[in-house]
Amino acid sequence: MAKVVVLRGGHSMERDVSFVTGKRVERALERLGHEVHPLDIEETTTERLIALAPDAAFICLHGPGGEDGTVQALLETLAIPYTGSGPLSSIRCMDKDYAKRALRAAGVETPPFRTFLRRAMNEMGAAAALDLAAASLGYPLAVKPAREGSSFGLSRVEGSDGLLEAVYEAFGYDAKIILERWTEGPEVSVPMLESVGGEPEVLGLVEIRPREGEYDFQAKYTPGATDFAIPAEVPDSVAARLRETALTTYRTLGCSGFARIDTIVEEGVPKVLDVKTIPGFTETSTFPLAAEAAGMSFEELVEKILSVALKDETVKL
Question: Class assignment of domain 91-109+184-311?
């Protein structure tokens, strides 16, 4: 059995979700017989990690500070094995602008987008380019922070009258925002999981069906607010394309251990919206739901992720 630090909490907007994920992982690790030490992120984190000298860290942090390579780089400096992707991959996936550019260069479909920086808006008058960018993409638009999760700061904009308000809303969460053409179609989440010494595999295809409106924060974390079809009810040809797209995305962005690829299937073509290197493990999260549908208990899922971290001797990107 291993001594495992479970990192949860942090300072992002997803702090509360991180605690829920962390608590579920802690309990699973305890049931598996591991020595578990929950640890919130604070100023004394480095000293406590050095004092504990764990065999591994199970990262349950969401959002900035957890998924952006910060804690991953610290753990590598301390020579502590950890779950999930490395610093560079975490940076790429956390920033939707970086991720979408890398995917587009690799030939992976992602909705057309434009990127705006708050500094450019303030110093270079880039606000004048907003209408041009929106017109080139076409309405409706999604306006969202480039480096936030759980749909924080996301707005659907139907026309030019609502554009500026949505932009200011998104800038309230991040200094970089994205305007993205709104994509219609089935929303399918694709969890990816590695085995010790094995290749990444698709755990399942999860079709997301909010009962009311969009798949926002409330729909994600309120039990009963969203229905899930596992496997996704899409034609076999589309299912094959989803698996291929998810695998290519995972490899292109250099992910390790596990990740979740979020897509919209538009006219039979998967379009990648987001990649989560530390997906939620709450009761309503798609990753553990996919594992359960595949016949894997939550404890088995946690043990498999931890085993890869303990045995992985490769350099993470």
Answer: alpha beta
- 12, 85, 150, 189: the catalytic one is 150
150 flagged as catalytic: yes
Rg (C-alpha) for the chain, rounded Å, is 19
Q: Which of 12, 14, 18, 187 is catalytic?
A: 14
Q: Tokens representing 305?
A: 């992720």
Tens-binned pLDDT, residue by residue, of the chain (317 aa): 899 999 999 888 889 999 999 999 999 999 999 999 999 987 688 899 999 999 999 999 998 888 999 999 999 999 999 999 999 999 999 999 999 999 999 999 999 999 999 988 877 777 788 989 999 999 999 999 999 876 888 999 999 999 999 999 999 999 999 999 999 999 999 999 999 888 899 999 999 999 987 887 787 888 888 999 999 999 999 999 999 999 999 999 999 999 999 999 999 999 999 999 999 999 989 999 999 999 999 999 999 999 999 987 656 76
Known catalytic residue: 18?
A: no
Q: What residue has token string 């920033």? A: 95
Model's pTM, two decimal places? 0.93
Concerning whether 14 is annotated as a catalytic residue, the answer is yes
CATH for the 3-83 domain, from 3.40.50.300, 3.40.50.20, 1.20.1540.10, 3.30.1380.10: 3.40.50.20
Rounded Cα distance between 18 and 9, Å, is: 5
Give the strand order in the sheet containing 56-59.
35-40, 3-8, 56-59
